[in-house]
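lol ok so funny story. i was supposed to be doing the assay writeup but got distracted and ended up predicting the structure for this chain instead. priorities right. anyway since i did it might as well share w the group, maybe its usefull for someone
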Amino acid sequence: MIIYNNSQLENGLTIITAEDNNSDIVTISVWIKAGSRYETPGGYGYAHILEHILLKGTKKHPSITSFHTPIDNIGATKNGLTSHERMYFFIQASKEHFETMFALLAEIFTEPLFDPDVFANEKKPIMQEFAIRIDNLSRNIYDRSFENSFPEHSLSNLIIGNAEMTGAVTLDQVKEYFEQKFTPKNMAVVVTGNVSHDVVVKSATEHLSLQDNRRVEAFPAAHKIPSPRPFFYKKTSSKQSHISINFSGEKLHEAERLSADLLANRLDYGTTSVLMQELRNKTGLTYSPETDLYFFSDAYLFRIITSTEKPREVLEILNNILPAFVENLTLEDFDLMKDQSIGILARFMSHPYKALEFCGDAWIAGDTITNPEIYMEKVRALTFDQFREAAKKILDFDRCSVVILGPGGIKEPAVSHLFNIAK
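and the output, tada:
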């Protein structure tokens, strides 16, 4: 049995735990409400640069070797991640090393090194990331999907920034971003595994007693979600066309978010999913169709992604099956979808990283569904009418953006015709 709990320290730091006494490990993380959408044209990529340099040493462990040796020697693992609205850093270790690893992770927030040589050197692999992102079509189409779904909006900011800004940024500018965002009211400790909430609170009080009275904006000032650009195409040397069908819009309320999860699971989970049946099992047009779903503080993005040598045929099928799926759905189908989503979540929560991300993402979004048990209760309570209404809203072809990277074979008029998005 997993026990979920949360509390807040006097300095505003949030503590979230998922205690599992049957586990032999603990995963310790610190989450920050920061990321690419908090950045301005004069400061793209600051969060991503911080992700790179903060794990390279602290004042107590002032080198990469001295910081990472205690982690490596006990067989633990660590990493940092940056996205649009979140950053987090974690260490995962066997349960007996909780206190030592908690103290070590805390150092990057209380005693960051900001070594000029490390900063200058770490820019080099970041520059390599820009080239990798261009060469890797799945990453490239991810970026193009956000740029075309949210044009001129902060959600279109590239997570890794851009090469020009990375080359010009100074260490003082990155330190200023750190001081603005890495404050206790803007941070949460999320721990999963074999450790109690009280022990985590004690460790956080001892090692993360940060004090800062500055007012922190939980999210950027709200901006109206723009209309997406209907079509983006870029010719590549690949043999296949990589396709992303993107539906975007204003923030979904609770029942709509639950419905979006059910919809995504039914479309792409398993061999009998709608997309696998139509695009692979019946036609052999694609190898692995899938969906991606993103919830933000003021918006959502629902993506259908695949690759194929016959993009026109794939788009024709999607244009036919998506509206028909919602219209032809029965109450029996809906009940099976709810059971499916509950089963998927139960399986995912057995993985420490999934449990960590569920709790952390809920905190980032200010979500009322703070743990998987509440989620399952809400899914069971969801009605058929709520789902149908939400699914029609999400799969709104007037808010659809089609992004294709490939060798050719389809042009904008054809896509506009297929997806009824010609204005």
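The two ends are 53 Å apart (CA to CA). The mean pLDDT is 92.
back to the writeup now i swear
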